[in-house]
Design a protein that fits this description.
The complex is a heterodimer. Chain A is of the alpha+beta class. In chain A, 22% of the residues lie in helices and 37% in strands. In chain A, strands 1, 2, 3, 4, 5, 6 and 7 form a 7-stranded antiparallel beta sheet that branches. A 5-stranded mixed barrel of chain A has the order 8-15-16-17-20. Chain A has a 5-stranded mixed beta sheet with strand order 11-10-9-14-19, covered by helices on one side. In chain A, strand 5 and strand 6 form a beta hairpin. The radius of gyration of chain A is 24 Å and the shape is globular. The N and C termini of chain A lie far apart (62 Å). By secondary structure, chain B is of the alpha+beta class. Chain B has 2 domains: 230 residues, PmbA/TldD superfamily (PmbA/TldD fold, 2-Layer Sandwich), CATH 3.30.2290; 238 residues, no CATH class. Chain B has 11 helices and 26 strands. In chain B, a hairpin with a 2-residue loop joins strand 23 and strand 24. In chain B, helix 2 runs parallel beside helix 3 and helix 4 packs parallel to helix 6. The chains are: A alpha+beta, B alpha+beta. Strand 3 of chain A pairs parallel with strand 2 of chain B, so a sheet runs across the interface.
Chain lengths: 450, 480
């Protein structure tokens, strides 16, 4: 079956060249997805499906045309190849357009990367349903306050990527994804609090146990019961490792070579400058076995690699795909990222702050009065101006101890503040997301409250 | 016209014969499910990206497929196929059927095609324009943003339009189809001065005819985005703490959408996980507050003739003079709650099962003029333009980014402030609405609401609203 798709992709690339493209490329994605949600011990949703689509990119006289389809009817694709070439004529010619240079990708390292778990073919539906049920059961048995639930989800996905272009040999790889999450609701009087905990892994056997996920989700719901607002003040804060990665999403946009080129990043002119605390080292690396952000080559076929973005507080590198690298007179860093229905853009792989040495308990102990932040919400992290403002929930720290829950407050500052006021980096780096960050102690941030 | 019309599959209902549809539904109900549905979709979209004065991307896409749903009590089985063949649909029906385990087999009712009367006419929908004309509109917006001020160093413009045919055939005998068009143009001008930078934002579009751009020329959108970037370039840091807040009209309605609307969606109500469960007929807001969800507003971004389950789009009064009147239901949650769908069953595409969602949600107009609202504030914030927001519908805690805000001192707007988030609790905040303006506008141009990893287009709106108190998340503790 897959062979046919490879033939289809190769055929489309050739036809585009025959119809007048200078260069052409097909990115084809095939996937199967399975989802079960159980709620109060019963199946609520069972979803199973196959997904497919292809994106055709053509370059004609340094102009770009793009077409995508989930309809693989040959006549539809054929007529649309011509249409794509016509679309290219309308775009602006740009000398930096084009496919990556030949021979950048090799299939050699595929097996070392361990991003495909063959077990996905054999896990039966009953087992998957049981996992979700067990997670939720564990949440219910954790506390009598857990009286309701939004359910527990098990998701498994298999994705195949086929990349064919007119310059190089075709390449392809398979990957798998497993996810188990639980969302119980703790209640006390009229008050309701939802708790969320999850794990995501490339390999089924590596998932946290459902009991553990259920238990932690219940604890996260229950510990917020009775939360109150505190007054506006400046205090030290600890960002828990589960949520500290929210800042990395904004940093990823700030070190995106395209944004840097357009000066729409607060870090645009900061290369080689000290922007953060000595203990902050930020890495982007697509080559770590089994990690969610790992892939052998990026979505244009360039080999992925390891880069230090911030090296001991010094900004040392930006992220590039082929087009933006050419503009900056650099080499692609292997960060082209896309779905089949998009043209490549710059994205991150495994993007993380290196593990530190301080245990979380130690950070808490040293704070006289401050906030242990357990959730961050909102769109307010602005990588262009470098300002941030977030709605947070957490636990108040008093004399080195966690005391009562806090909600309906904001945490605000600048991203420079954030990077330079990090005083301690936790030893609890955890890769349940491709963007990962240990717990961080920030010297001083502004809380907005009463 | 472009060739979009020729490849947009005109009548999805003609893809299969009556008998074939019946066979698919039969298969879906073969394990004893109590409801089965076929959703067919064919969508064509055009995207244009202009930045650095270059047309960097003009793309064109086709999305098509079918989703089969079977429900059995509270359970849903769902399967989809990207291939519109009888065999594939039957296969999907079989997969979905297994959610049910019952000996009682229900026969699908005889299918009767249902004609629908459109809520508004689109004689010349924008998506059917030739690409050259779309590009011209984009270029006009770019030029006007750049001409606004020489400090506007970059302008990015995103254009997206789609033409979509959908069809729904279900075991209750419904067979219905519709065509939906939408367009959105977003302008992002970046103003730079020394180390200061600010990105402005303005949008236009809706489910509109070509003539829309005569009344709303792209130049206006370009200039509005540039004005915002320039006005906010030298903004001060925002205050932190609880303050009176005036929220601007139109897109400001996103606050009611997030802080309140989500809590009224039927899934959270049925599961009793929403803070608004069991509050029907109770006072939930100030007397001056009336909230509407209306899928029939002409040209609205959240408007449709039928929802994604084939139910007619409707206008619903959710809150009347502060009293909670109703919830938003899809078919499944309505059935489980012993009521009727309100035409709010929506989905992102055939790859998703429908869930209860808002359409165009707004606060009805009130009696106080903008000027008098501003005058009534001694020390506070005028949040003229909000950005995105989100809510935890269990607690009702919400947050919004403020894109453009000013300090109000002694009834006068004084200086711009940046970077603030507005946060609070929905149930609490809606009671703190003190004044409702006369300048109601429902924003048809932008708004994509995300829930359970599905995005759907929505309209939001309100007149200018004054809250007696909202927490402002700035950095200046004692500024005011």
């Amino acid at each position: 079956m897959k062979m046919n798709y490879l033939e289809l992709a190769t055929d489309v690339v050739k036809k585009a060249i025959n119809k007048g493209a200078d260069e052409s490329e097909v990115y084809l994605e095939l996937g199967t997805e399975f989802q079960v949600r159980t709620r109060k011990g019963e199946i609520e949703i069972l979803k199973q499906a196959q997904k497919r689509g292809l994106g055709l990119r053509v370059f004609v006289n340094n102009k770009l045309g793009f077409f995508y389809t989930s309809d693989f009817t040959p006549e539809i694709i054929d007529t649309q190849i011509e249409k794509t070439l016509l679309l290219a004529k309308h775009s602006t010619s740009d000398e930096f357009y084009g496919l990556p240079e030949k021979d950048l990708a090799s299939q050699k390292k595929l097996s070392d990367l361990k991003i495909y778990d063959p077990q996905i073919e054999t896990i039966d539906t009953k087992t998957k349903i049981e996992l979700a049920k067990r997670a939720e059961e564990s949440a219910f048995s954790e506390s009598p306050n857990v009286k309701n639930s939004e359910g527990a989800n098990f998701i498994s996905e298999k994705t195949s990527v086929i990349l064919v272009n007119s310059k190089s040999e075709p390449i392809s790889y398979d990957s798998t994804f497993f996810h188990l999450s639980c969302e119980p609701v703790a209640e006390h009087g009229n008050e309701k609090r939802i708790g969320r905990f999850w794990d995501s892994k490339r390999f089924f056997a590596d998932l946290d146990s459902p009991e553990d996920i259920g238990k932690k989700s219940a604890q996260r719901a229950e510990r917020m019961l009775g939360a109150k607002k505190v007054r506006s003040q400046k205090v030290p804060a600890i960002l828990e490792n589960l949520i500290s990665n929210r800042f990395l999403h904004a940093l990823a946009s700030a070190v995106n070579g395209d944004n840097v080129y357009k000066k729409s990043s607060f870090l645009a002119s900061m290369l080689d400058k000290k922007i953060g605390f000595d203990l902050v080292t930020l890495i982007d690396d697509g080559t770590i076995p089994k990690r969610l952000g790992s892939k052998p080559f990026d979505d244009e076929g360039v080999l992925t690699r390891r880069k230090k973005i911030i090296d001991k507080g010094v900004l040392s590198c930006f992220l590039y795909d082929t087009y933006t690298a050419k503009k900056a007179k650099l080499a692609s860093t292997g960060n082209a990222s896309r779905e089949y229905d998009e043209i490549p853009q710059i994205g991150t792989l495994n993007f993380y702050i290196e593990n530190g040495k301080t245990p979380l308990e130690e950070m808490v102990k040293e704070i006289k009065s401050g906030l242990f932040v357990t959730d961050l919400m909102g769109f307010g992290i602005n990588w262009i101006t470098g300002d941030f403002s977030q709605m947070v929930e957490g636990i108040w720290i008093e004399n080195g101890e966690l005391t009562y829950p806090v909600d309906e407050v904001t945490l605000a500052g600048t991203l420079f503040d954030f990077l330079s006021k990090i005083e301690q980096v936790g030893n609890d780096l955890d890769f349940r997301s491709p963007l990962a960050c240990p717990s961080l102690k920030i010297g001083e941030l502004v809380i907005g409250g009463k | 016209m472009s060739d979009m019309r020729s490849i947009l599959r005109k009548n999805l209902l003609e893809l299969f014969s009556e008998e074939e549809f019946k066979k698919i539904l039969d298969e879906a109900l073969s394990q004893g499910g109590d409801f089965a549905e076929i959703y067919l979709e064919h969508r064509i979209s055009t995207e244009i990206l202009l930045e650095e004065d270059k047309l960097k991307n003009i793309s064109y896409g086709i999305l098509c497929g079918a989703g089969i749903r079977v429900t059995f009590g509270e359970k849903t089985g769902y399967a989809f196929s990207g291939e519109l063949s009888f065999e594939k649909l039957k296969e999907a029906a079989q997969v979905a059927s297994y959610i049910a385990r019952s000996n009682e087999k229900i026969e699908p009712l005889a299918i009767t095609a249902k004609k629908i009367k459109p809520n508004f006419l689109l004689e010349s929908p924008v998506p059917l324009l030739e690409e050259e004309k779309k590009i011209r509109l984009v270029k006009r917006a770019n030029q006007s943003a750049r001409d606004y001020d020489k400090k506007i160093e970059q302008v990015k413009i995103e254009w997206y339009d789609e033409a979509k045919n959908i069809a729904i055939i279900n075991s209750e005998g419904i067979k219905v189809s519709d065509t939906q068009f939408i367009v959105r143009m977003a302008v992002y001008p970046l103003a730079i001065e020394g180390s200061k930078r600010f990105e402005g934002y303005a949008t236009s579009g809706g489910r509109v005819n070509i003539s829309y751009f005569d009344k709303n020329p792209p130049e206006n959108t370009g200039a509005e985005g540039a004005r915002q970037a320039m006005d906010m370039l030298n903004a001060y840091d925002a205050p932190a703490g609880s303050l009176p807040v005036v929220v601007g009209h139109a897109w400001g309605g996103v606050l009611i959408h997030e802080a309140f609307g989500h809590s009224l969606e039927g899934d959270g109500i049925r599961k009793n996980t929403s803070l608004m469960s069991n509050l029907l007929g109770k006072k939930v807001a100030s007397d001056i507050v009336t909230v509407i969800d209306d899928a029939t507003i002409p040209f609205g971004r959240g408007s449709f003739n039928i929802d994604d389950e084939g139910t007619l789009g409707q206008r619903k009064v959710l809150v009347k003079d502060g009293i909670l009147q109703g919830y938003l239901y899809d078919k499944l949650n309505a059935k489980l709650m012993g009521t009727q769908s309100t035409g709010n069953g929506r989905r992102e595409s055939y790859r998703h099962y429908p869930i209860p969602r808002m359409t165009n949600t707004y606060i009805e107009k009130g009696e106080t003029d903008l000027e008098d609202i501003i005058k009534s504030v001694k020390k506070g914030i005028y949040a003229k333009k909000l950005g995105g927001g989100s809510v935890d519908h269990t607690t009702g805690n919400f947050n919004f980014l403020v894109r453009e805000a000013y300090v109000i001192e002694n009834g006068k707007i004084t200086r711009p402030v940046k970077g603030a988030l507005l946060i609070g609790n929905g149930l609490d905040a809606i009671k703190k609405i003190e004044l409702v303006g006369t300048d109601l506008r429902v924003d048809p141009t932008t708004g994509t609401c995300g829930k359970d990893k599905q995005g759907v287009y929505v309209g939001v709106g309100q007149p200018t609203i004054k809250f007696s108190e909202i927490t402002v998340g700035g950095t200046q503790i004692k500024q005011l």
